[in-house]
Amino acid sequence: MYEIYGLGNALVDTEYQVDDGYLRSHGIDRGHMTLVDEARLRTLLAGLADRPSKRISGGSAANTIFAAQGFGRKSFYSCKVASDAAGIHFIDDLTTAGVQVNHNAMSRTGTSGECLILITPDAERSMNTFLGISTALSRTDLDEAALRSARYFYVEGYLSSNGRSLDAAVTAREMAESAGVHTAVSLSDTSMVVHFREGLERILGKGVDQLFCNEEEALAWARTDRLDIAINELSDIARHCNVTLGARGSISINKGRQTPVEGFPVKALDTNGAGDIYAGAYLAMICHGKEPKEATRFANFAASRLVTHIGARLPDITSYRRLQQSFTG
Asked: Which of 5, 11, 253, 260 is most open to solvent, judged by the fewest CB atoms within 10 Å of its CB?
């Protein structure tokens, strides 16, 4: 039995520190995720070759599942990688941490997905993603027995951008519902809301148990500039919703009732992965029997600690346990 079953893209992140001028001169959409082909990715990487970088395993839902495992929740992850160095490294990171993966996660052909992440001095991240073999993620990569045994099924909204992956996400959500497994979805990025809304609507179905998004994504979903209107609309598609507000904390919404939860002020270095660890921390605490407000407070705390590091994950799995211990005392 698993507590959280995740589904999402498998990516290896390469991070560079740049300024806003670099983003403008290279036509990069600041603060958002942009899908690129391999040629565009290689061109961007070649232009950054003389700068220091950090290369680590990533992928939004993978980061969430890694965090949940680190916070003590037995987790499973379905994904697709190639049998190249990046893919082997990605799977090894998960399994070493104790996360189980689908038996057919590694393809003998193709190239593993990569994400170029550019961090500006204000800690904002701009992502250029080449999905690679992740576009082959399909319903055949689902482990139905593991999914049906879980307490929560978690899926990233990024899967709405690809037909086969979208089909896998919808199929998994339907499996979860038929087995009485709680469903949780992240809207992932404003670009998904704007350009792949129909796919997101299919993933959400008639509504999910838990939705995660940030303020910008919430406003984009409701096509409004008023957060109160956005929250009302989100309450129609999720029984419980968490809207993150950056340094201001987040709002926990339960059946339309709002509970603002303050953040933890820090000097942010890199906001990449903040929403991912937030979701992992929240789900871990809910599975541990905590009330939504306390789970939200821990999620705020976890995200605040992550952004003081470079990279979308803490240095190692034991870092998550130490973070949890520092919160609980």
From this structure: 260
